[in-house]
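Record type: ASSEMBLY
Status: queued
Input:
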Amino acid sequence: MKQRALWSALMVAALAVAGCGSAARTERPPGDSQQKQQKLVVWDWKSGEPVAAAYIEKAKADFAKRHPGVTVEFVAQPFDQYYTLLGTAIQSSKGPDVMLFNGGGQIRDRVDALLPLDQYVAEDKSRLAGWDAFSKDGKIYAAPVTLQGHPIYYNKTLYEKAGLDPANPPKTWNDFVSGCAAIKKATGAACFALGNKEGFGIQFFMSGLGSGVLTPQEYDDWIAGKRDWTSPRVKRIFELWKDAGDKGLNNDGANSTAMFTDIFRVFETGKAAHIIGLMSDIGHWKDFGEFLPPDKIGVMMAPIVTDGAAPSLPYDGGIGYAVAKWTKDPGLAADLVRSLTSTDALTAFYSKAGAIASDTTIDVSQAGPAVATIASEIRTGKPALHVALSSKTLDLMGRLSQQLLSGSTTVDKAVEQVAASDRES
Amino acid sequence: MKQRGRRARTAARSSSHGARAERLAPYVLVAPAVLIIVVLRLWPLVLGVNFSFTGDGELNGSPVGLSNYLELAGDPLFRTSLRNVGLLVLLLPVAVAIPGLLATFIYLRVPGHRVYRSVYFFPAVLSPVIVGAIFNLMLGFDGPLNAVLGSIGAGPIDWLGDPGIAMFTVVGVHIWATFGMALVVFLAGFSTLDASLLDAARMDGASLRQIIWHVIIPSLTRTIQFVFVTTMIGMLTSMFGLLFIMTSGGPEGSTYLPEYYIWHQQGQMNRPALASAASTVLFVVMLVVGLLQITLLRRTGRQD
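Status: finished
Output:
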């Protein structure tokens, strides 16, 4: 027994000293690209959904026209496990040639495994919006398919019942809160539908309302990476979050209600008047349409909380296709990415799934007031505040936001911790 | 004479050959099993421990010494996850007592014991994901359980949203979902129980409590120990599904367990090396717990 213990101790010591090898596979020299590639494998979590079928078909057809001999295989992974599976593929430098990414932290954390696409997508740059979310250090790593943002949706029926004008949503925070009080009195509905079980609620809140709190200069600095965590306006965002909880603006049990997708049902069924939702995927105007007719859903700009703020629509590239570094024929894979972002394909995605596509040339005038408002704000919109933060900071912020709601920490302490995490990364 | 000598020599040679074959045979025969364990278990383990001493991201592959372990020690989330392991150990007696008590009632033939026997086992066939989804609905803030509480005048409880309650809720659901197995083991133990002892106790006028305490529990010592060990293993290794579905580690990170932490760091935070370090710590914890349990079992085995 003693000897065994000695051996294990020796082995641990040896490993500690050695510490060689790596948890993620180190880069491998590119494979033999002489032989012509006949098959491309795409990983995503969208292609299995019925609403995306037409989109995938159009993209495939477009690609087949240009490269008749090449087969494309779409592998739809479950989203819950997507980045875990992708992580494993990246570690072994084997796997899909083309893969889908969420913009922001998810792709920026993994650019080591991706091919810069600048030279391939130059022609698409002005047609598509949302490139920033897929860029790091001035290089583009994926082409945007959808735009993801956080408009504030409101239920016009509840506004009417409370005697408010649904065509003129409140412009300031005070009006907004008093409007909510009227709605609560008339209908019993909460002001915000908030699901913070996963800790995502604060991200939506920060981005949805942030442009009504920060000055335009502060906002741009934040996005550019110069975040002043000592600014009273930054702190105001977190105070607002806590106040909304303390004053009962949120639905009950926010910390145990899942953002995906329980909270969207709360809004749809008229139990809350507002929700800071999404523009694509789910939690958007078309998703709500199951219970709420499109003409009863409005989109408002962030109410002005502090003077000098200029509300804008917060949005970024939502999802986009990237090319793996280990693909044999980068040009071929990049061409597939271009097919996946062609106007035809994206139009199909918009009309079937209701996603706000990255292509600014698509006509959305038929889809109702919410989409019209969103489309009109794209030009002046800015990247969302939370997307600029690292996934580690967002993770921490999620837990702190739950503590703020339950009262087990203070705004000052929470801001301090988020700031420390942000400076570190 | 000469002939016989040669024959003897050949026999000796072939027998020495046979002896060597006989000596090697066991090694050859166990080789496949050993190889599988070494290649698929021990080698990955060594690799994992090795990775835990390397860095993530830009430091990928370069040795960083103990910095991953220091980061773990400084991470309140990881400390919470280890504290929760401690909590599970503390809750173990409850998890064993419930099936034990119910098995006793079934053994003592309470009215309807046949129905109970099958009903109790039923949740054990459900996957944790299904169980989690069911209880998510039941325990939601506006769910049926709170509605029932409300109708008797008790305030709603945020079962999965209150950091002081959520871990107990999840453990409770885990016990509900898995106690059927332990119950079966207990019933098997009861079948070896000497019925004449019970009859004798009854003749002597022992109460139910006295029968349980002085007759049943002493006769079932080994079964109880076995259930302790298996329940412990179950609690430490198979809570992931429930946590994933019911709380996602929240609220406020209060329901993290090491397994969930490892998954989170590897899959969500893209920190495989840090995850390796956490796995190594979990491995050591499990090793200690396992060795303690083996010692315990051996000691009681000797007593018999």
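Annotation: The radius of gyration of chain A is 23 Å.
Annotation: Confidence is low (pLDDT under 50) at residues 28-34 of chain A.
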